[in-house]
Specification:
About 75% of the residues lie in helices and about 5% in strands. The chain has a domain of about 55 residues: Zinc/RING finger domain, C3HC4 (zinc finger) (Herpes Virus-1, 2-Layer Sandwich), CATH 3.30.40. The protein has a three-stranded antiparallel sheet with strand order 2-1-3, covered by helices on one side. With about 270 residues, it is mainly α.
C-alpha cells in the first residue's frame, strides 16, 4: 500500500465526518424545532462536545495514517539499509578475497625467489667443491707420481750404493793385494842390491853407507802402467783396474791392462 495514496484520500474521510455532523446538527435543530424545550445553551454545549469528538476522531485517523506511513517508510528504509548492507558485505568479502589472493601470490613469488637463490648458492658451492676436489685429486696424483719417482730413484741409489760398496770392497782388496806384492818386491830388490854392493865394494865407512840419493823414488804401491814411475792411484771403471796415476789418467781412453773403454775413474788416496 502506498502511503501517499492514503494521505491523498484522507480529505474525503473528513468530508464524510462533516456531513455526518451536519446531519446530526440538523437532527438536533429539528429536535429543537419540535418543541422539546431544550435551551439554547444546552445546544451550544452539545455542539461543542460534538466538535471535540470530531476533532479527536480526526486526530485518531491522522495518527493512524501517520503510523501506517511511518511503518511503510521504516519498512522501505530497512529494506534499503539491508540491501546496502548486503552490498557492502559482498564488496568487503570480494576485496578480502582479492587481498588474500594477492598476498598468496606474493608469498609464492617470494618463496620461489628464495628457493631459486638457495639452489643457485648450493650449485655454486658444489661447483667450487668440485673444483677443489679436482685440484686435490690432481695434487694427490702429482704427489703419488713424485713419491713413485722418489721410490724408484731411491731404489736406484740403493742399488748403486750397493754396487759402489762392492766396488770399494773389491778395490780395497785389490789395493791391499797390490800393496802386499809391491812391498815384497821392493824389499827383495833392496836386499839384492845391498848384498851385491857389499860383495863388490867390501866394507865401507859409516858415513858412506848412510848416504841417501835424492833422485831415488821409493814405490810403496803398484806402478803406473803409463809412466812406470809413479804409484798407480786411479781405478779405471768399469773394469776396476788400479793401473794409472793421476797425471797419466787424462792420456788414456781405455784401460792399459784390458783395453776396455773407460767410462769414468776413481782416484784413491793411499796413506
Amino acid at each position: 500500500m502506498n502511503p501517499f495514496s492514503l494521505q491523498s484520500h484522507s480529505p474525503h474521510l473528513i468530508d464524510l465526518t462533516q456531513l455526518h455532523n451536519q446531519q446530526q446538527q440538523q437532527q438536533h435543530q429539528n429536535i429543537v424545532s419540535t418543541g422539546l424545550g431544550l435551551s439554547f445553551g444546552d445546544q451550544q454545549q452539545q455542539q461543542q462536545r460534538l466538535q471535540f469528538q470530531h476533532q479527536q476522531q480526526q486526530q485518531q485517523e491522522n495518527g493512524f495514517h501517520s503510523s501506517q506511513f511511518l511503518s511503510l517508510l521504516s519498512h522501505g528504509l530497512s529494506s534499503q539499509i539491508k540491501q546496502q548492507k548486503d552490498e557492502i558485505d559482498q564488496f568487503l568479502q570480494a576485496q578480502g578475497e582479492e587481498l588474500q589472493r594477492t598476498l598468496e601470490e606474493k608469498r609464492q613469488r617470494n618463496y620461489r625467489a628464495i628457493i631459486k637463490t638457495a639452489e643457485e648458492t648450493v650449485a655454486r658451492r658444489l661447483r667450487e667443491k668440485e673444483i677443489d676436489l679436482e685440484k686435490a685429486t690432481r695434487r694427490n696424483m702429482e704427489l703419488e707420481s713424485r713419491a713413485a719417482y722418489l721410490r724408484t730413484e731411491m731404489q736406484l741409489w740403493q742399488a748403486k750404493a750397493k754396487e759402489q760398496e762392492a766396488t770399494a770392497i773389491s778395490l780395497q782388496n785389490q789395493l791391499h793385494h797390490a800393496m802386499m806384492n809391491g812391498g815384497v818386491e821392493n824389499r827383495g830388490e833392496e836386499g839384492c842390491g845391498l848384498s851385491c854392493a857389499l860383495g863388490v865394494e867390501g866394507q865401507a865407512e859409516d858415513a858412506e853407507s848412510g848416504y841417501i840419493d835424492p833422485d831415488r823414488v821409493v814405490i810403496s804401491g803398484p806402478k803406473c802402467k803409463g809412466c812406470e814411475k809413479r804409484v798407480a792411484s786411479v781405478v779405471v771403471l768399469p773394469c776396476r783396474h788400479l793401473c794409472v796415476c793421476n797425471e797419466c789418467d787424462t792420456h788414456f781412453r781405455v784401460c792399459p791392462v784390458c783395453l776396455t773403454v773407460k767410462n769414468s775413474t776413481v782416484e784413491i788416496y793411499l796413506s
